[in-house]
Amino acid sequence: MTTIKSNDLTYDFKKKTSAGKIKIKVWGKSQIVMLLTFLSLFILTVYGFWTFDLKGISLIEATNETLYNLKVMFLQPSFSHFTLLDAVGQIGITLGLGFLSTLLGVILSLFLALFAAKNLSTKTVSNAIIVVVTFIRAVPTVLWVLILAIAAGLGSEAVILGMVLHSVAFLVKAFSESFEEVDEGIIEALRASGANWWHIVTHAVIPTTASSLLSWSFLRFETNFTVAVAMGAAAGAGGIGFELLMASGFYFDLREVGFITYFILVIAIGLELFSTQLKKRFLTNASA
Amino acid sequence: MALLHVKDVSKHYEKGKNVLSDINMEIFEGEFVSIIGPSGAGKSTFLRCINRMINISEGDIHFDGIDVSSLNKKSLRKHRTKIGMIFQHYNLVSRLTVIENVLHGRFGHKSTLQGVLGMFTEDEKMEAFHLLEKLGMSEHAYKRCDQLSGGQKQRVGIARALIQSPKLLLCDEPIASLDPNASKVIMDHLQSISKEMNITCIVNLHQVDVARKYSDRVIGLNSGRVVYDGESKALSSKAIHAIYGSEAGSLIME
Description:
The complex is a heterodimer of chains A (288) and B (254). Chain A has helices spanning 29-50, 59-75, 84-116, 123-138, 141-152, 156-180, 184-192, 197-234, 240-250, 254-282. Chain A has 288 residues and is an all-alpha fold. Chain A has a single domain, classed as MetI-like (MetI-like fold, Orthogonal Bundle), CATH 1.10.3720.10. In chain A, α2 packs across α10, α3 (84-116) packs antiparallel against α4 (123-138) and α3 crosses α6 (156-180). The longest helix of chain A has 38 residues, at 197-234. Chain B has 2 domains: 1-82 and 167-229, P-loop containing nucleotide triphosphate hydrolases (Rossmann fold, 3-Layer(aba) Sandwich), CATH 3.40.50.300; 90-165, no CATH class. Chain B is globular. A 6-stranded mixed sheet of chain B has the order 6-7-8-3-9-10, sandwiched between helices. In chain B, strands 2-1-4-5 form a 4-stranded antiparallel sheet, with helices on one face. The relative contact order of chain B is 0.18. Chain B has helices spanning 43-50, 73-81, 98-103, 112-116, 122-134, 150-162, 180-196, 208-214, 237-244; strands spanning 4-14, 17-27, 32-36, 58-63, 66-67, 83-86, 168-172, 200-204, 217-222, 225-231. Classes of the chains: A mainly alpha (288), B alpha/beta (254). The interface between A and B is medium-sized, with 20 and 34 residues.
């Protein structure tokens, strides 16, 4: 290495520490804010643990109890209040909830997404739909279900409505983004030949995006299945989620809880694997 | 009477920045016209003004005796069916088959329902096969367009434009993405279309020698103005340099 003397530099931008060494790290505003944030979080955590109110529970005993419960739940699963056939039937109901809400959601959002896509619609209409849809998406599905329960009553109707609403909000965004990726040239070519909007949508936009529409729909079905499990319990829509609630909160049957959990897990993993395959094949931009 | 009559046409997106200024020309039936000029000279914009994919700011364009700027939505569709267009990037729906893409050219003659349901008559399908045969593509009729080479895709694009039974063919750099072999095939097809079917062709080109070889007439555009309009045989190298604003010896063709 050749030694370069400090006076070789044309412009002297280097900074030095108090000890006279050249600095390589500069403390800016953002670094200081970051450091303070971490520091205060650390202090809060320590303080939180320090002031735990344990109500006389021994930590070791409690840990043992929990581990024992988990062992019963997951290593000795069995069912006592219903048969395997019942469980399959209940899973069917949950899948049905998920399927119906996805189906309705897909149909509705297909039309809305056409008007939300910037290349197929006007700016005003597109922005209006996107604002509404973003608002709906920002509110969790559970809240929509509870809000709609005012009109529909707690039960499967409110659950379906709430899930459809949230699915539409999600799918309109996903679908319209797929539509926006359609090559502008294809649309131009058809417009130049005298084709109207409906011709272009049905014969160029939909065929081009069909596979990604399908993948998004399935992705949403997978989400809707999980939501339907929770909704079965929380909003009384029935299905495997309701059985889970009964087993845990009503019968305190840990073995049954374990069994149902495994059952849901198997279905969820199955769906997940399938949709990952779809995603890999057809969605290049799946980030949402 | 001229098929296309362009009078004092200007186009600007922002005030004071003209993309096209004072374009005047008459193009006659069956003529093969090339438009050459540097990138950004307004060649593509000019083509799109003819079928009103872009609205002009000033002047008028008369096509087939009709004032293009006065058309309403319905008659604009009818106007566009009389003008076929082909593109540098072919702009086909690559997921669909060749024959489906060719039939897309018939949408302009269809009602919404007929088009949406894809109701094409046997005559139209027969015509599509005739065109594909003429372009040497009939064996590929049921192939998906993403399996074709560039030259083949462009031939599908031409078939899609021809099935409109147009009076004018606008070609926006049809050979800019093709190798010399495919370029020749495409240019030969365009020439025979113009000669045999008596369809007027306006072709944007970057290749001056191609323009000179194939066209009856060359129009040179620079910065939105017509700087040359004359027979292709009379196109001197001095005129070419005037079109491209270049010095003698600085163009790749020399």
